[in-house]
Specification:
Order of helices and strands: EEHEEE
CATH superfamily: Beta-grasp domain
Structural class: mainly beta
Number of helices: 1
Distance between the termini: 45 Å
Radius of gyration: 12 Å
Number of strands: 5
Shape: globular
CATH topology: Ubiquitin-like (UB roll)
Helix content: 10-25%
Strand order of the largest sheet: 2-1-5-3-4
Number of domains: 1
Strand content: 35-45%
CATH class: Alpha Beta
Length: 68
């Protein structure tokens, strides 16, 4: 069974039960090179494995902001 989500406003199908860390691996994105949000809420890097994705979720991938 699969679910449909949006990644940066583009539809994507994933296996049901996928988490955010698995999505980044599937997309071949280096976890440290990207910041993430699900449904408008920031998800810290360490919380990604526990962040389960569900039908209709909206995932945003963006450059992390580094202050100085």
């Amino acid at each position: 069974m699969n679910i449909q989500i949006l990644i940066d406003e583009q539809p994507r199908e994933l296996p049901a039960g996928s988490n955010l860390a698995e999505l980044l691996a599937l997309l071949q994105r280096e976890p440290r090179s990207v910041a993430t949000a699900v449904n408008g809420r920031f998800v810290a890097r360490e919380a990604r494995p526990a962040t389960m994705l569900a039908e209709g979720d909206q995932v945003l991938l963006f450059q992390p902001i580094v202050g100085g």
